[in-house]
Amino acid sequence: MSHKLEVVQPKPEESHRMPYAPAVSIHGACDLMFVSGATPSPLYHDHPHIDAQHNHPCPIEDQTHLVMESLKMVLDKAGANWKDVVKITKYLTDMRDFDGLHRVLNTYFGDWRPASTTLCVNQLSSPGARIEIDLVVALPRK
After folding, report:
1. What per-residue confidence (pLDDT) applies to 25?
2. C-alpha to C-alpha distance for 92 and 77, rounded to whole angstroms
């Protein structure tokens, strides 16, 4: 790795209380990859949308797993992993899903906490989707 990611914690003794990093700094040479938002729909689906391609399970945990697996396909293709993610933006249609979302995210990110923003939105582009996630990823220069 030609770069180093470092969590910026103004109060490290309080970090156990947060599911994300206040900031992540990148030291050294790297490239950035901006990953488009993924929903529980298949990564590749028709446009305009065909309803049959957007049958989502209801629980937020199940929808989050589908989103994360689509994002993992992108990371894998780029030669990156979850610890290369420096920023995650999560869009929820119901903020009460926040804890269920983070239970699933923790299974992917382990002890790494990228910088994070969560927004509550009225609806998403995929019918029935309750979550969408986009990423910013630090890639080592080749």
Report:
1. 77
2. 26
d(CA 118, CA 120): 7
User: Are the beta carbons of 101 and 64 closer than 8 angstroms?
Assistant: yes
Q: Cβ of 81: how many Cβ atoms within 10 Å?
A: 14
Asked if residue 48 has a cis previous peptide bond (ω within 30° of 0), the answer is: yes
| Residue whose pair of structure tokens reads 């298949």 in the numeric block | 42
The closest of 88, 101, 90, 28 to 60, measured between CA atoms, is 101
What predicted TM-score, i.e. pTM, was given to this entire model?
0.84
Query: Residue 44: which CATH number?
Result: 3.30.1330.40
Could you tell me if residue 13 is inside a domain?
no
Q: Both tokens of residue 51?
A: 């309803």
Closest CA to 29 of 138, 135, 115, 114: 138
CA dist 91 and 104 (Å) reads: 15
Host domain of residue 125: 34-137
Strand intervals (E) in 39-125: 85-92, 115-120
Confidence of residue 66 (pLDDT cuts 50, 70, 90): very high
